[in-house]
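Message: I would love a firmer grasp of how sequence relates to backbone shape in proteins. Thank you; the sequence and its tokens follow:
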Amino acid sequence: MILALLLGLVAGPVPQSEQALLRSCEMTVEGWICVYRIPPITAVPEPGSVVTNRTLEMEMAGPPAVAVPAPVVVDPAAVEANRLMLRCAEASWLSLCTPGDRRQARLLKDAADRRAALQHEVGRLLGEQQCDAAVRTALRAGDLAMAREARDFCQVGAAGATPPVSQ
């Protein structure tokens, strides 16, 4: 086996006409999808095997059916607020952030940290099958969307199906 590999390396590179050619690549949610043009393939039988005179055909799988996700609606104000938070929340005195930008960025960062802590707590309660406590926790924090999501998760979980994924 190793001898065959070494002989293959000594033989040199595969000619261009026998290589698969890249046609296109596309980045999707699952990762990269690349399309190649495959050259004709000649099947060589193993020694001692019986080959009939019929033509060997290989079925090529077509491109996988990829469900096109719904377009994500992006709020420009949220994008700008996130950019401000990343740029100025913990910036040094040398950065190009005004004092007002720094205050606003710190407020946004604190709110994002509180939301992440709440999400962690609600997720922990849901993981412990404490649906009522998870909904109450989200409502106490004033996050109606998270409370609704937790309630829907519990209702779907009680029905035995998989819960919907929100973004």
